[in-house]
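Why do we care about 3D structure at all? Because function follows from shape, and shape follows, mostly, from sequence. That is the central idea of this module. The next example makes it concrete: a single protein chain, its amino acid sequence, and then its structure expressed as tokens.
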Amino acid sequence: MTLADVVFGLLGIVCLAAAILVVTARHVIHAALWLVVCFGALAGCYLVLTAELVAWVQVLIYIGAVVVLMLFGAMLTRAPVGAVQELDSGNRPVAAVAGLATAGVLGTLVVAAFRGAYVDIHHTSIGDGKVIGTSLFRFFVLPFEVASVLLLAALVGAIVLTRREA
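And the structure:
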């Protein structure tokens, strides 16, 4: 076991703990800040795997833009900062069972889909920005732009729905 393996494992534990705190936090702002920790640990995992471009995209796009957008949206819509009892439906056990079942199904599908997959890492440029950039801007431009428009529409919809009449 190398030092890189230990660092990767510790970053994975931090990422998992922060992700659990994101979905269990009772304050929206606290959840967004735990999301920053989760994304930061994930960027560290990418750095350990020598995927520097993906790590910096994680930092710039997800931490720098998405989380700031979420915080801006929460503050702009005057979302309640404290715990609000009217918003708690009391379905946490059912939601936990549904989440675990979904994770099990997705895990099974991923294992079944990639069981026989083989990647020859000796002839692949791992972490190469040119390969990632070429595939992103040649094959995935439309899905990338659709996702950005969808996120913008979701933010505008949240602002419209939570706006109070003056």
